[in-house]
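Form 7-S
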Amino acid sequence: MKIVIVDTYYPAFLTRFYAQQNGLAATDYSTQLQALLNACFGTSDFYSRHLNSLGCEAQDLVVNCITLQQAWANANNLPFSQLALKIPHRLFRVPLFGKFLADLPGLMDVAIAQIKAAKPDILYCQDLSFFPSEVLCELKQHVRLVVGQIACPLPPESFLKGYDLILTSFPHFVDRLRALGVASEYFRIGFDERVLSLLGNVDKDIDFSFVGGISRHHGGAIPLLEYLTERTTIRAFGYGVDSLPSSSPMRQRHGGEVWGLNMYRALARSRITLNRHINVAENNANNMRLYEATGVGAMLLTDRKDNLHKLFDIDREVVAYSSKEEAAEMVRYYLDHPDEMASIAQAGQARTLREHTYRQRMQELMPILKRHMR
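Output:
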């Protein structure tokens, strides 16, 4: 089974990554792609590497990275508009399910050419906002199954109709997608053990952290974070702090953006780390931070959700809060009881490494894909 996995990376990460990798932009496509995957941003090669170990032929495409795609176009004698090269990565901000990326000169053409050249059985799209439905219809002439995966607000129906199957870590999305006539199945995300070997030993020098973005999709997160900033020793890392007013107490406790392996390192340094879900999660636990935080050995303090107990043993493997007051009280309690805190962190990590790794997820994914191929 040949699988092409299409992803897009945050523009802010791409800008910083290439600025820090001196000379990388001048290297060939394979060198750039491997460097990007080694940074462990997003799902990195967590799907392809384990799919390959299961006997598939899987490859990754990062279709919004201009420098990378330019290298592929040059190597394959594909014309690539110079206009795209003049647009810095920081301007590649995708309006939610808009067609901005698709309309950029060159990028769509290169992605289509890469897929046609690979001749995959399955096209697996991690970003449903990149390919317009008409492009997916064209690509169906070259692939047997077009699969999407989503854990964010649903796009307009026109973006969904081009998919043969959409997988989602939101349990409540499955029936909604099926009601639209789109095949859908529940599929959880996870943690990749390779991160631990890349991190090595990390000293836990942060008592309590929040590692994540601040955006309009996070609703009540800012009042929660500001409340905790005033009542605990929380340290925050991630994007979006510039959107806060200058009076926000979070600005004084914010350590800036962390991406990829540096994000995992911030979590690993934390004795306790806070998680909260975006609004569209409703009352379902699903996000990557559940597994990333526990995977690196932090004690996870997460918002209470109806299905959380199906993923972790609450109060033994993770701790859940229902209000900002309860969250603050739990932080104080566990910092005052370090043995209990360490026990929960260790149990949470053991559960993730036992049941929530991408190795296991790909074993779960294979029968789903085979069933829909038939």
